[in-house]
Amino acid sequence: MTFGVSGLLYKSNVLMYDHQTESLWLQVKRRAVTGPLTGTKLKVLPSSVTTWKKWRKRYPETKVLSFDTGYSRNYSRDPYEDYYRKSGGFFSSFFRAGPGEKEKELVAGIEIGDSSKAYPVELLRKKGKLTDNFSGNEVTINFNEETDQLSIKDSDGVEIPNVVVYWFVWKGIHADSSLYKEK
Amino acid sequence: MNRIFLAILMVCLIAGTAYGWDFEKHSIPVDQILSGGPPKDGIPALLTPRFATPAESGLEPEDRVIGFVSGGDARAYPMRIMSWHELVNDEVNGKPVLVSW
Lengths: 183, 101
Prior knowledge:
heterodimer, A: mainly beta, 2 domains, 4-stranded mixed β-sheet, globular, B: 101 residues, alpha+beta, two-stranded antiparallel sheet, two-stranded antiparallel ribbon
């Protein structure tokens, strides 16, 4: 199965589609939400967002996606640079950040059963290690400053897949989600 | 008059959004699916990614990448490419892997 960009958004979230059935998939949920495959989930594989310097140091033999993509684009700049700097999103007008919250703060979001919670990435980076309880679940979060690797585990040591997104994007999809705050 | 025009515009926008997609089965309210601007495939996903060595990569130390490792096969996907294509349909160790940004 292969995927393409539908050009459609749901609550500021990207909808991808698969070429085979043209079902729409909600990126942040990794789940088909319309079309024949509605309800099907993709398995999340651990990845990290880091700098080239840190990645290369850790994996000197790494392969790198080539700028020779077959498309002519100006890869010398990131087209979303302005968007990263702006405080609001394209469709963030329906979202109101709570006290002390920034709508475009990057968070690591997790789901356990029907509960969900988000942790500010900068706070995790600063603290390195954090344990938290929510809805009866104990989670341990480790942030490795050297590799930018973020790992969230439950009390049995099982990895809980996390998604790093803007807070307003996460909250748009997980209306009941709370944002972790330092006590 | 303005209000009528706005209503017609809204109908066009919604109809345009639904055009061509099969929404018979759905788990989200389809009237909240909006066009993000570019048309379908207006942002071209990569289907046959090519890879370079670190020396050939042309990356700067502070460039951001998405890193993924599977069974000793490490791959870096530069953000400067991900922002233009959003999706890379890759294969790692014989298994399909979708990189999404």
